[in-house]
Amino acid sequence: MANEHEPAKPHRITISTVAAALGVAVSTVSNAYNRPDQLSADLRERVLAMAAELGYPGPNPVARSLRQQRAGAVGVLFAERLPYAFRDPAALMVLEGIASTLEQAKLGLLLVPGRDDDTTTVQQALVDGFIVYSMMDTDPLVEAALKRRLPTVLLDQPPRPDVPSIIVDDEAGARMATEHLLSLGHRHFAIITDRLIETHVRPSHAPINVQTQSEATFFVTQLRLQGYRQPLEQAGIAWSDVPIYDCNDNNEADGAAAIQILLARTPRPTAILCLTDRLALGAIAGAQQAGYNVPEQLSIVGFDDIPQATRITPALTTIRQDHRQKGLSAGQALIELLAGQSPTGYQRLAVELVVRDSTAAI
Fold first, then answer.
1. How many distinct structural domains can be found in the chain?
2. Which end of the chain is flanked by fewer CB atoms within 10 Å, N or C?
3. Is residue 29 part of a domain?
4. pLDDT-based confidence at residue 37 (cuts at 50, 70, 90)
């Protein structure tokens, strides 16, 4: 026997409840939400008012998406854990560009972070397509996304046949940075990168040797290393003599730690090429903390031209890329795919050298 003091369980309000209260067909209530053009304005207003009065929340969005075979959202796969997307200025600008384009098409955005071997999130993501953003090409999440056979755009990824691809001219940018330092007379170089070799625990903080450079895990890293290497070798500098410090993550703290190790080497490098601006900003701070003057004793070049590059002293010489445009291009390409169109298969966005105060003649 039920306890007479127990509160009555609330009756579940459904679309049929609303239809019965109004004395109309269930299809009429459904049209008020899904096909408002099929009803008069007065009838639709009555349906919605009754639904609000009864507490009907509207059609189940999952069920509706299954009926329409559209989710109304796009999944963005990226290599980092979720908080990184909100901390890194470059990633934020790319995501802003993607979101701006998707918003115009009335599409939502679902972030699918990487660094996880569990592909369930990708396999079960309720999305209409994917943008794969700077992932390892061997990452199981990439393969899981491609196996869904949904419209997909590659961003900062190795090109694949029949998949639209958007990249930045990373190799050209790295070459510009290196040639700039060479023109200033520098001969002793070092490179600071992040996750050149993908391991969860670094065995040491020593710069890696040349043999491991071919194992670069990210397409962007590979291109930038090629861009650094070519002009150095053309200038007679052996690539094997260039120390490369591989940070665990792309942040200022790791850049500062890297420069401390590199400055203790003999011969001491006078020119530092950083794979990102965040690493470069950390390197400048770390060098100054160690008592070195930038650029009088040490020239440092970044890559990205994030807003913070102009706020540090000295202002950072860097390679500018248009992060927001990169995101806009990726979003537009995916929208075109969803509309049954054929976007440009391969886009390479230009970069430029921005000379500021962190580099000087030796």
1. 3
2. N
3. yes
4. confident
Does residue 28 have a pLDDT over 60? yes
Helix (H, G, I), strand (E, B) or coil at 348: strand
DSSP conformation class of 31: H
Can you count the helices (H) and strands (E) in the chain? 13, 12
Res 8: pLDDT: 44
Q: What is the CATH number of the domain that holds 43?
A: 1.10.260.40
- pLDDT (mean) for 112-141: 85
- Is residue 66 a contact partner of residue 130, using CB atoms and an 8 Å limit? no
Does residue 249 fall inside a structural domain?
A: yes
- Domain span at residue 333 reads 73-168+323-349
pLDDT value at residue 347: 95
160 and 183 housed in the same domain:
no
The answer as to whether 210 is a domain residue is yes
Alpha helical stretches, state H, 184-338: 219-234, 252-263, 277-289, 323-338
Lowest mean pLDDT among 35-49, 80-94, 111-125, 329-343: 111-125
Indicate whether 333 belongs to any domain.
yes
Rounded to a whole number, what is the distance in angstroms from the first to the last CA of the chain? 91
Task: Give me the CATH number covering residue 199.
Answer: 3.40.50.2300
Q: Among 26-30, 117-121, 222-226, 292-296, which is the least confidently predicted range?
A: 117-121
pLDDT tens readout for residues 239-284: 999 999 999 889 999 999 999 999 999 999 999 999 999 999 999 9
In the chain, which ranges are E strands?
73-78, 108-113, 129-133, 152-155, 165-168, 189-194, 244-247, 271-274, 299-301, 318-320, 346-349, 352-354
Whether residue 222 is found in the same domain as residue 137: no
314 and 356 in contact (C-beta within 8 Å)?
A: yes
